[in-house]
Amino acid sequence: MNTILLNWRTSLSGFLSFVIATGAVFTALPPAWLNPKYSAGLTIAVGLAKAWVGMISKDAGSVEAVVPGKGVQVVTSHEVPDDPAAEAVQK
Length: 91
Fold this sequence. Notes:
By secondary structure, the chain is α+β, with helices and mostly antiparallel strands.
């Protein structure tokens, strides 16, 4: 599957960061055709959208896993498990 679609929250967050930075520049140094009020309003709206994406995104670095003899636990998330007997929880 396409990485952008698979990790859409991260991709959208990166795009929104770019738009916020561009909007901040246009607010500070607006081109002749752009009203600074519109640029400021758009930057604020995009900032709120980025905050929303951040709230619905999962934190990296941990995942639920079934650890034999210990049940379901939150363990560090990376390609190679710490405990070779641990299996990822299928949702």
